[in-house]
Fold:
Amino acid sequence: MNVYDGQRIAAMLEHHGFIQTDNVADADIILLNTCAVRAKATDKVYSALGRIRLAKKPDAIYGIIGCVARESGSDAFRKIKDLNFVLGPQSYHKLPEILSDPDNKLLDINLGGIEKFDELPPISTSPLVAYIPVQEGCNHCCTYCIVPYTRGPEISRPFSDIMAETMHAADIGAIEICFLGQNVNGYKFTDESGKTYKLSDVIQETAKIDSVKRIRFTSSYPTEMTDDLINLFGHEKKLLPFLNMPIQSGSDNILKKMNRQYNIDEYMALINKFKTVCPDIQISSDFIVGFPGESNEDFEQTCDIAKRVGYINSYSFKYSPRPHTAAAIMQNQIPENIKSERLIKLDSILNDRQREFNLFCVDKTFDCLYEGPDKTGTHQIYRTPYMQPCIVTSNTPSPMARIKITSANKSCLHGKIID
Ligand code: SAH
Structure:
């Protein structure tokens, strides 16, 4: 979501005559687009602001955008006196106001509107992967999560707006479309004629665009996986057979305390449904270890489920208490050293399975999407349908290539392009 917001902000500033620079000392305006999901991300913002303050030109204006802006509000101006703007995730289209009045301070952390989508100029060239938001905010109220506070309640975008933006992205170069939302599969929009559109409608309409070759979406909530969406994995060839479906914990007891609205049996039944309609599907997950009250037994259940499902790629985090959340004031917070031990143990299980799946891919052939050169500039990185990075050597990279996997390790694949 932040990548998308960043592209729109960049397009807006370009519209005002700015050009991008990587050098803080050259910049006339500097903004940090921020994430508040874990405390570490928030802390990084303030240390980065300190560094920017020292490096920037004296008259350059700077500020924060996104969820940390929403979380800290006017406190940010108290912490960093000469900061110029603090704009929440639904107000960044107001940035031009500070350009016309740089001596002022601009604060807007209001929620409840999605005018930003309409008010920003469209991007003029698209990367091969276009991120298209279908909804903002979340109504789930997981007890650990700051998102309902920072991004507000769910608002689904009009179907016609999403399709117009998707077609525009395809026209200007996108080959893969990734639909976004904090609760992406909760997307639901009813138009003036009374017709209701769901995520499956968005995907099917997008699949009709010839130049779009791959479709995916993130981040989904298990109980919002309806049959229309699940069945699409069985017959919509452009929908990648790879799904992020966060489980968070393997213990029913902890899931309840997290206010996740499923238990492990229900989650496993869902996985089985996906595997039945699409035998090739692979799943990734998010995990939180060390949630308040998590016993050794609860944690062992998380390890068991990680092994049972065999996720091919996952994100795992130590629980981080966040302001405005119920879990932050729960009893039995877990000491940091135990959280760290548990994370190491879970990661080793997740990494083993990731390596195992990567090795399983050796000798297989996939249609892959070009991502860019590697760090050395001598090889190219492509993404398989399972989003694994695959390194190849070729003189002329093409947007899509058929690649035979020749070797693999935990973090990537190597392959060669076949005609
Ligand atoms: N559905 C949202 C989730 C955002 S956060 C979205 O993707 O837009 C991504 C992941 O961060 C969550 O799935 C969860 O595993 C983790 N997370 C959220 N709050 C957290 C917290 N307080 N501490 C640790 N991890 C957290």
DSSP finds 14 helices and 19 strands in the chain. The mean pLDDT is 95. Residues 37-38, 144-145, 147, 182, 219, 246, 248, 286, 288, 317, 319-320, 322 surround S-adenosyl-L-homocysteine (CB under 6 Å).
